[in-house]
Design a protein that fits this description.
By secondary structure, the chain is α/β, with parallel strands linked by helices. The protein has helices spanning 10-22, 33-42, 59-68, 84-92, 105-119, 152-163, 171-178, 189-201; strands at residues 2-6, 26-30, 47-50, 74-79, 97-100, 126-129, 132-135, 140-143, 146-148, 210-213, 217-220. A five-stranded parallel β-sheet has the order 2-1-3-4-5, with helices on both faces. Strands 6-7-8-9 form a four-stranded antiparallel β-sheet, with helices on one face. A two-stranded antiparallel sheet has the order 10-11. Helix 2 (33-42) packs parallel to helix 3 and helix 6 (152-163) crosses helix 8 (189-201).
Length: 230
């Protein structure tokens, strides 16, 4: 999943960016409010981690502007402002969550993961698609109880497909949510990784789970033939 980290204090920003990348997220970063608005409106972020005290354009204005423009990303406010009134104002202005500095990174990571699940209307940390289980907390995949070893990029693709189970997602959708702004990619990278996933996920004698809709994209789920029980 793709996250935008907006923080003007470089040590905090770099630490959060590195931690999120190590946890498997594609991450963009901005050091001021003007850059934050540009990034937020130029990419499909699932979560935005937003400091309030920013140069050029303050974080509260960024938050209100994004909500006025109906930005679909969930926004986690990360700030030193810790009074109850500050929290209420942040949440009433459109924030989905509020975390006060100083903070422990594992808590921030847990909150980001929670916001991703909320965005895709997922309750638990394990996604189930037929006999495929995707443990989003530990990044472990099993089919029929048997562990499937995936690379980090393969896992990111599968997780996005699982979060959108039974819905068709286009190549550009996958690209926007799995790669950050600075990624330099071959035009067929999505097709290549989908092929690798099929080779590792599909099993002889079991229903096919990864499907192609010609001209539209891919989806993860079961396709039932006429006459089969629902």
């Amino acid at each position: 999943m793709r996250v935008l980290v907006v923080e003007d204090f470089s040590p905090i920003r770099k630490a959060v960016v590195q931690g999120l990348r190590e946890a498997g997220f594609a991450v963009d970063e901005a050091a001021d409010g003007e850059s934050a608005l540009w990034h937020a409106q130029s990419g499909e972020h699932d979560v935005i981690v937003l400091d309030l005290m920013l140069p050029k354009i303050d974080g509260a204005t960024v938050l209100k502007t994004l909500r006025q423009k109906q930005c679909p990303a969930h926004i986690l406010v990360l700030t030193a402002k810790d009074s109850p009134d500050d929290k209420v104002e942040g949440l009433e202005s459109g924030a989905d969550d509020y975390l006060v500095k100083p903070f422990h990174f594992p808590e921030l990571l847990a909150r980001v993961r929670s916001l991703v699940r909320r965005k895709y209307a997922v309750k638990g940390t394990t996604l189930h698609v037929a006999d495929l289980d995707v443990d989003t907390r530990n990044r472990i995949v099993r089919r029929g109880g048997e562990r499937v070893d995936l690379s980090g990029r393969e896992y990111a693709f599968l997780e996005y497909l699982a979060l959108n189970a039974d819905r068709t997602v286009s190549r550009s959708d996958i690209w926007e949510h799995v790669y950050d702004f600075n990624a330099s990619l071959e035009s067929n990278v999505v097709d290549v990784i989908i092929a690798r996933l099929r080779a590792k996920i599909e099993r002889p004698g079991r229903p096919q789970l990864i499907h192609t809709k010609r001209g539209q994209g891919y989806f993860l789920g079961l396709v039932r033939r006429p006459g089969e029980d629902a």
